[in-house]
Design brief:
Blueprint: H1 3-14, H2 22-30, H3 34-46, E1 50-57, E2 65-72, H4 75-86, E3 91-98, E4 104-110, H5 116-127, E5 131-135, E6 139-143, E7 147-148, E8 153-154, H6 166-171, H7 180-189, H8 200-207, H9 211-223, E9 227-234, E10 243-249, H10 256-264, E11 269-274, E12 285-291, H11 294-308, E13 313-324
Antiparallel strand pairs: 1-9, 2-4, 2-5, 3-4, 3-13, 6-11, 7-8, 10-12, 10-13, 11-12
Helix pairs in contact: 2-3
C-alpha cells in the first residue's frame, strides 16, 4: 500500500459517502480520478485488506439477542469445534485466544424468536466443550473500530450505543418496531457495496425508491439508532495491525463507570464493555486493542493501567481468526439453527456436519 491507499482507507472507515457517485467524491478529496479510486479499492479487496463496505446496524435495537461466549476445549478439539460453530449465521467473530483456560471466544446473535442460551448450550454439547460461559454486555462504553492507516496507530472514536444522555442509556438494548419496508432496506444496506461508479442505483431500484429516498431512510435509521453508520471494515492483520489482544480487567463495582469511561477514551481501544463475572472469572471490563506488534499492545495495556490504577488483568492474544464478518439480519439462514426449549427437541434442523479435512 502506498500513502494514497492509506488515506483512502482512512476516509472510508469513518463514514463512506452515501451519494450517487461516492467513488468520485472520494477521488475529489484525494485529488485522484474516480477510476483510480475504483482500481485501488478493487486491488485492496483482492489483497483482503478491505473486507466490506456496508451499513453497521445495532443488533439489539433490531430485536436480536446477542452475547460473547467463552468456551474451553482440549487443544486437539479446538480447530474442528471452531469450524462447526462458524456454521451458525449469527456467529460474527470467532477467535482462538491464548492467556486463559477459555481458548475459544465468539460472538453470537439470534433472532427475537430464538433462544440464545439454548443455542449456546447446544453448541457446547455438540462440540464437546469442557466448559462454557455466556457473557452478555451489561454496559457499552465504546464500540468503534478505526485504524489510522497513515500513522499506523489505533484511532477509534468514542461511539457508545448507550451514549451519555439518559434516554439513550435506558434504551440501548430495547428493540424498536421495524416495518417490512425497513427490513427490505436493511437487507439491501447490509450487503457489500459494489465497486462500480453508481453502486446505490440498483439497490434503490430493487426497493422501488429513488436514491435520495434510500439515503433518507439510512439517515432515519441512524436517527432511530438502529444503524450506526455506513462504512468500510478492514482486515486488521492484512492492514498491518498484526497483534490483537482482548485485555480483561478486574474493576471494583463502585469504580465501574469511571474506569470504563477512562478506558474508552484511549484511541487504541476499539471496544470497551462491562460483562458479568463468575466464580472462575472475576474480570468485569473487556477492552479490545490492536497494534502492529505485541509490544504495541503491551504499551497500550500499561497506559490503561496507569490511567485507571487497575492492575489485575489478563491479556488474551488471538492466535487464529476463525471468522470475522458483520451479522446479517432478517435472512432465512437462521431457521435451520432454531433451538427448541422443549425437552428432547434440540433443533428443528441441525447444521451441516463440518468436514475434518
Amino acid at each position: 500500500m502506498d500513502l494514497t491507499d492509506r488515506k483512502l482507507l482512512n476516509l472510508i472507515q469513518s463514514r463512506f459517502p452515501m451519494v450517487d457517485r461516492p467513488y468520485a467524491e472520494l477521488g475529489e478529496e484525494l485529488e485522484i480520478s474516480e477510476d483510480e479510486v475504483l482500481e485501488r479499492l478493487t486491488e485492496l479487496k483482492r489483497q483482503n485488506v478491505l473486507r466490506q463496505v456496508s451499513a453497521i446496524f445495532d443488533t439489539r435495537r433490531l430485536g436480536y439477542k446477542t452475547t460473547l461466549v467463552a468456551m474451553a476445549f482440549e487443544p486437539d478439539d479446538l480447530h474442528r469445534s471452531a469450524l462447526w460453530i462458524n456454521r451458525h449465521p449469527g456467529v460474527s467473530h470467532n477467535y482462538a485466544r491464548e492467556g486463559s483456560y477459555y481458548n475459544l471466544w465468539f460472538t453470537l446473535a439470534v433472532p427475537p424468536d430464538h433462544d440464545l442460551e439454548s443455542t449456546v448450550n447446544f453448541m457446547a454439547r455438540e462440540t464437546g466443550a469442557l466448559s462454557c460461559r455466556i457473557m452478555p454486555t451489561i454496559r457499552f462504553f465504546k464500540i468503534g473500530v478505526n485504524f489510522d492507516m497513515v500513522q499506523q496507530k489505533g484511532s477509534s472514536y468514542n461511539y457508545s450505543p448507550d451514549g451519555y444522555d439518559k434516554s439513550a442509556a435506558e434504551s440501548w438494548n430495547r428493540a424498536v418496531d421495524v416495518s417490512d419496508e425497513d427490513k427490505a432496506a436493511i437487507l439491501e444496506l447490509q450487503e457489500d457495496l459494489e465497486l462500480i461508479p453508481r453502486p446505490f442505483d440498483a439497490m434503490a431500484q430493487r426497493l422501488g425508491k429513488s436514491t435520495e429516498e434510500l439515503y433518507a431512510m439510512a439517515q432515519e435509521f441512524q436517527d432511530r439508532r438502529i444503524m450506526r453508520r455506513y462504512s468500510a471494515v478492514l482486515h486488521h492483520r492484512r492492514s498491518g495491525f498484526r497483534a490483537n489482544a482482548m485485555i480483561v480487567w478486574k474493576v471494583p463495582e463502585e469504580r465501574s463507570d469511571e474506569v470504563g469511561m477512562t478506558m474508552a477514551g484511549h484511541k487504541a481501544v476499539t471496544h470497551c464493555y462491562q460483562r458479568p463475572t463468575f466464580p472462575d472469572w472475576p474480570y468485569t471490563h473487556f477492552t479490545m486493542v490492536h497494534a502492529t506488534s505485541p509490544e504495541g499492545c503491551e504499551e497500550i495495556e500499561r497506559e490503561i493501567s496507569e490511567a485507571t490504577g487497575i492492575t489485575e488483568r489478563l491479556m488474551l492474544y488471538s492466535t487464529r481468526e476463525y471468522k470475522k464478518t458483520r451479522v446479517r439480519y432478517f435472512v432465512d439462514d437462521y431457521e435451520r439453527y432454531r433451538v427448541s426449549e422443549a425437552p428432547g427437541h434440540d433443533l428443528a434442523m441441525k447444521p451441516d456436519p463440518v468436514s475434518t479435512s
